[in-house]
Amino acid sequence: MFGVVENLNWMDALRARLGEAVSTDAEVLSVHAHDETEDLRFPPQAVVRARSREDVVATMEVAHAYGVPVTAAGARTGLSGGALAVKGGIALSLKGMDRVVEVDLANHQVRVQPGVIVQELQERVQRDGLFYAVDPASRGTCTIGGNLAENSGGPRAVKYGVTKDWVLNLEVVLADGQVIRTGADTLKNSTGYNLTQLMVGSEGTLGVITEATLKLLPWPRHNALMLVPFASADAACAAVAAIFQAGVQPSALEFMERDAVRLAQDFTGDHSLEVGEDVAAHLLIEVDGFRPEELMPQVEALLPVLEGAGAGEPLFADDAAAKDRLWFLRRRVGEAVKAASVYKEEDTVVPRGRLPELLRAVKEIGGRYGFRSVCYGHAGDGNLHVNILRDAMPQEAWDEELPQAIRELFAEVVRLGGTLSGEHGIGWVQKPYIDLAFSAAQLELMRGVKRVFDPKGLLNPGKIWPD
Amino acid sequence: MFGVVENLNWMDALRARLGEAVSTDAEVLSVHAHDETEDLRFPPQAVVRARSREDVVATMEVAHAYGVPVTAAGARTGLSGGALAVKGGIALSLKGMDRVVEVDLANHQVRVQPGVIVQELQERVQRDGLFYAVDPASRGTCTIGGNLAENSGGPRAVKYGVTKDWVLNLEVVLADGQVIRTGADTLKNSTGYNLTQLMVGSEGTLGVITEATLKLLPWPRHNALMLVPFASADAACAAVAAIFQAGVQPSALEFMERDAVRLAQDFTGDHSLEVGEDVAAHLLIEVDGFRPEELMPQVEALLPVLEGAGAGEPLFADDAAAKDRLWFLRRRVGEAVKAASVYKEEDTVVPRGRLPELLRAVKEIGGRYGFRSVCYGHAGDGNLHVNILRDAMPQEAWDEELPQAIRELFAEVVRLGGTLSGEHGIGWVQKPYIDLAFSAAQLELMRGVKRVFDPKGLLNPGKIWPD
Q: What single DSSP character describes residue A398?
């Protein structure tokens, strides 16, 4: 076991073990000080760019011996500040561990390192006719390790589930540098506690994931995509529950307020879609299948439901280019909002039937506190991204009153049977509200689990719950 | 908070809180001394028949104050001894908490108490066109609470997953009588640690589940079923991987050795299926769909794969009665084996492509140790139930040598990337082998989690790992 070496401080010990993988260059520290969450800046004291499991083990051994915080990071595309070293110490970058280790064709599984970019994983397995379903808006840049840490979702979660649903087994480096597997590479497992699912979504606070075995599906390569306008956001939300009640299982069912579409149009410069004042919201609906003939029956089942829900004329994407254009628009909403104003994004989630109530509550609270909101997200999952734009709000109101408004919003979310985050995690930005989601008994259990895995409190400290 | 009352022993305290719900009747204790695992007998000292969450809270408060073990039980159909009070104390029967609390049509969810019988739940939600997918062989008698505790599977797990995949939220009474919710009634949740998945499959060692919110699907009411003979068990196993590689997703893909079918035929008295000496094994394959026209393309994709894998002529079930007959035969294999001989059942699971190797290992080890085995199970999941029949094996060999044989078998399972239990749990009978599945570091983490939830060690003691 590695221990404290006399006359060495932790930085020297880290360099002694990891050499050039350690950086304290000001620019490198600055890059690792932020992710995609608002305008947060928390520079670490050192960045370790891990190239192997052994590098991660060495980092944790030094950190454990010297009591230094370690915050793992991937591509830093997160939206809750989960990858930020808010207590300083070491930012442990796993971006360089980016190998697809094995595509197992016999078992429809893939073993990956945490730094693999999600879209690259998807394209890699599609070459073998297989499908990794989880596709966050940031899939072109985000890493699978970050997805595991935050239990990321994305548009296709409505049919295929979120990251946790595709994880069979993890290799994890513990706080003291020991390495474990959390499960087995099997589809079923009733052997001991489910450490795999405990690790997924734990935001790097219980261990550092160095390899994952993921389940794959045969690739459903055919799909149909339509954009459906509604005269009221309420009607669009209500249509969502009606679609499922009709027995249709879309592979994506996205909601966008008018302002979300317009901001994305301004941001991308693509105004080919006309969005009149009579359109308050859109649903973007995809159905998929392994065979082309599976699509039409689904579309035919959808159309009368949409008509009954008061939808306008659906716009069908005729070819791959048209589909790409619609998806590009949808995927750029987040960045477009960010470009338009200082903002805060709340990742609210409720049972999907309560979406109309949630949306009304957002607007009502916004009216009282005087903020503009742009809402969009994964309506099929009841997962609404509420973007609060600062616009001309005075700094004092933004700093002092807005947290109270957000608290009211989350209280309403919980009252509707929902919770604080559907797919972004709690991280740094939502932790002041965690008492709304959990009782003292629940929090005590979670803190107890944390102590079991990380008795010194070195793994991503300062996250999930207030100190 | 309830505490020890002077001059009362725990039994009196229990009666004072729970009245007639407490029984110490010899016959009642005897009934609760066994489940369906081998011929184990562990009578508790008292049985509490809980009628409400408050009864469970009262039981735990008394147990916590007096330091009495509590083992929750449902229908006691388990196959690992998970529901047996091996350390005495209180058997807490949840069978009477058998209400379907709410079918939520807008959100495709159902809230149930733990004592609901799985088949009754399925039939209840089917009346609303909805589907609860998990259907263990014992679904006509087993309860959802037991399924949650052991993370049960069943034939349709190959397409729809196991119990854990359908749980959104649990109400749990903790060791000290506090009540928590583990999550939210939402499809997505990235808020804090996943206590829901930690609870599922924890075999009653972390808390007592008093209510569950389960996810439902639209009911895929159409299916096609075929029984496919193979001249070698190896070829049948190899066909399993080929089916998935062809892009077919069966809703059931079951394997039965010749002896499994024959034992079930003798047990049920239905010999209408002729099983010649040239048939070594069968696959029972089901495909399903929401619309009848979804079936034929799947069957047409299957047939060439089966032919290529060396299958004999498939027998199609022409109507509902024929399907019921085939499923009845399959579901009765377990009881048939039990009726034929003293036996032990191992719930092995490997990546499905490794099934042929696993089956060969079973037979090879059986040859060396001199036992007969009957293998069947959920081939699509790589989950093979290995039934070891005592037949004429001398008692000493059964008691002394067989554990060594089982150890060899599990070592091989782990070497193949698998683990000890796919859907039955570890419970009492597999715990001597747990060191094969977990390293010391893993076990220490699990024991640590156990201490957080149950510091006094009162919840289902003596399970999962050796004392």
A: I
pLDDT mean across residues, chain A: 95
Contact B190 A244 (CB under 8 A): no
What is the DSSP secondary-structure string of A297-348?
HHHHHHHHHHHHTTB---EE--SHHHHHHHHHHHHTHHHHHHHHS-EEEEEE
- Transcribe A190-218 into DSSP letters: -SS--HHHHHTTSTTSS-EEEEEEEE-EE
The count of other CB atoms within 10 Å of the CB of residue A24 is 13
Structure tokens, B378: 């959920």
- Half-sphere CA count of B465, side-chain side, radius 13 A: 20
Phi, psi for residue B326 in degrees, rounded to 5: -65, -45
Query: B218–A104: do the CB atoms touch at under 8 Å?
Result: no
Contact between B187 and A381 under an 8 Å Cβ cutoff? The reply is yes
Amino acid identity of residue A459, one-letter, is L
pTM of the model as a whole: 0.97
List all residues 6 or more positions away from B239 whose beta carbon is below 8 Å from its beta carbon: B228, B230, B283, B305, B306, B309, B310, B311
pLDDT at B294 over 90: no
Contacts of residue B297, defined as CB under 8 A and 6 or more positions apart, other chains included, come to A291, A293, A294
Q: Is B48 helix (H, G, I), strand (E, B) or coil?
A: strand
CB B408 within 8 A of CB B365: yes
* Strand residues in A68-207 grouped as ranges (E): 70-73, 90-93, 100-104, 109-112, 130-131, 167-173, 179-181
> Pick from A198, A247, A422: which is nearest to B188 by CB?
A422
Q: Is the ipTM of this complex over 0.90?
A: yes
pLDDT of residue A290: 86
H helices of B163-291, in order, are: 195-199, 233-245, 258-268
Cα–Cα nearest to B71, from B61, B79, B81, B197: B81
Whole-number pLDDT of residue A350? 97
Backbone angles phi, psi at B72, to 5 degrees: -75, 145
Q: Do B424 and A197 touch (CB under 8 A)?
A: no
Is A187 in CB contact (< 8 Å) with chain B?
Answer: yes
- The 10 Å Cβ neighbour count of residue A154 is 26
A76 phi-psi bin (left φ>0, alpha ψ -120 to 50, beta other): left
Q: Which residues of A touch B290 (CB under 8 A)?
A: 247
> Which residues in chain A touch residue B108, judged by CB atoms under 8 angstroms apart?
244
A194 with B197: Cβ contact below 8 A: yes
Say what percent of chain B tops pLDDT 70: 100
Ordered domains of chain B (ranges, CATH): 10-95 (3.30.43.10), 100-218 (3.30.465.10), 222-334 (3.30.70.2190), 341-437 (3.30.70.2740)
Nearest CB to A441; choose among B178, B297, B352: B178
Cβ pair A420, A413 in contact under 8 A: yes
Give the whole-angstrom CA distance, residue A286 versus residue A222. Answer: 10
As a dihedral over the C-alpha atoms of residue B78, residue B82, residue B85, residue B89, rounded to 10 degrees, the angle is -120
B residues 32..91 contacting A (CB < 8 A)? none
- Is B448 an 8 Å CB contact of chain A? yes
Name A378's bridge partners: A383
CB contact under 8 A, B419 and A291: no
Q: Is the pLDDT of residue A123 over 80?
A: yes
Judged by CB atoms closer than 8 Å, whether chains meet at B188 and A382 is answered as yes
Over range B224-246, report the average pLDDT.
Answer: 93
Tell me how far apart the alpha carbons of residues A194 and A183 are, in angstroms, rounded to a whole number: 7
Q: How confident is the model at residue A2 (pLDDT cuts 50, 70, 90)?
A: confident
Q: A269 at the B interface (CB within 8 A)?
A: no
Task: List B residues 278-337 in contact with A (Cβ-Cβ < 8 A).
Answer: 290-291, 293-294, 297
